[in-house]
Design goal:
By secondary structure, the protein is mostly helical. It has one domain. It is built from 15 helices and no strands. The chain is globular and about 50 Å long.
Length: 290
């Protein structure tokens, strides 16, 4: 029988233990193999409120495009064709919360539109509708606090103050929804405001076309953002037929909005965006009980 030298035996045992320890160290932990959560869509930077404003409203953890910023971006298209884009308000409020949210977005956008056009007489009916819709969504106290200021500012023709109150209305409703862990509805308010603004912008450019004005309309980054946002909504919303169709239209619209030297903004392209914006508004306004 061969005798293994003690020194060699110790060396073999040492290598065996080292290999075993490396194997243990190489084994991934549960945290390491856990699939990371999907990151939410990133909103275009120029449509977000500044950090200071968000800190005041305590909603830094939630970001969605500001309807005020969206309408600020339409300044280059002024004057806006009010007679062509006026929206008739429904006498009956929707029963579904998602429908309420997107129509609040419409209403806030309507507010910015009439203020930008200087049509102060139309502020009162919009303010009253915002109050009704806010109560139905569970944010009545927050909205009501702004209604009196909206009416007073309209009476005194204070345009800047009106814009501030409309901005605060969107953010206060968002704040309430975030507190209720219902951020989907907060995203829908923003979506409703942007769809309304897109339709207004497309109508303005189609009515008075130039390549420079057309470029203001072509924001594929915003179309991208809302395409992705709809996909992140709860299935009870995102799987509704109208939202499925909206997402498909937005995805195609994003491609049409890409502007390159070989793909300039034409009058025909603007007309196509206008047609798609009308489809999107119709689909967004389709209530769950219709």
């Amino acid at each position: 029988m061969k005798v293994i030298p003690l020194s060699l035996l110790c060396l073999l045992l040492s290598l065996s233990n080292s290999s075993s320890e490396e194997s243990k160290e190489a084994k991934p932990t549960a945290a390491e193999i856990e699939t990371p959560a999907d990151e939410p869509p990133v909103a275009p930077e120029d449509l977000l409120d500044d950090e200071h404003a968000r800190e005041e409203l305590a909603i830094n953890d939630f970001t969605a495009p500001s309807i005020a910023k969206v309408f600020d971006s339409l300044q280059a298209l002024a004057p806006l064709p009010m007679a062509d884009v006026e929206r008739k308000m429904s006498e009956r409020m929707p029963l579904d919360r998602a429908d309420l949210a997107i129509e609040i977005g419409f209403l806030i956008a309507d507010g910015f539109l009439v203020v930008q056009a200087g049509d102060m007489a139309k502020v009162e009916p919009i303010a009253k509708e915002l109050s009704r819709y806010g109560k139905a969504l569970g944010a009545g106290d927050r909205v009501s606090s702004h209604v009196a200021s909206l009416l007073e500012s309209a009476k005194n023709n204070q345009v800047d103050q009106l814009k501030k109150e409309l901005t605060a209305t969107q953010k206060d409703v968002e704040k309430e929804l975030v507190a209720l862990r219902d951020t989907d509805l907060a995203h829908l308010i923003s979506l409703g405001g942007w769809l309304r603004a897109l339709n207004v912008a497309a109508t303005a450019v189609n009515k008075q076309y130039s390549q420079a004005r057309g470029k203001e309309l072509m924001r594929e980054d915003i179309a991208d953002y809302y395409t992705e946002t709809i996909g992140t909504l709860h299935p009870r919303i995102s799987e509704r037929p109208n939202y499925v169709e909206m997402r498909e239209i937005l995805s195609g619209l994003r491609n049409e909005m890409v502007v390159e030297e070989k793909n300039p903004v034409t009058k025909e392209k603007v007309a196509e965006v206008l047609a798609k914006s009308k489809e999107l508004i119709t689909l967004a306004a389709k209530r769950v009980d219709q």
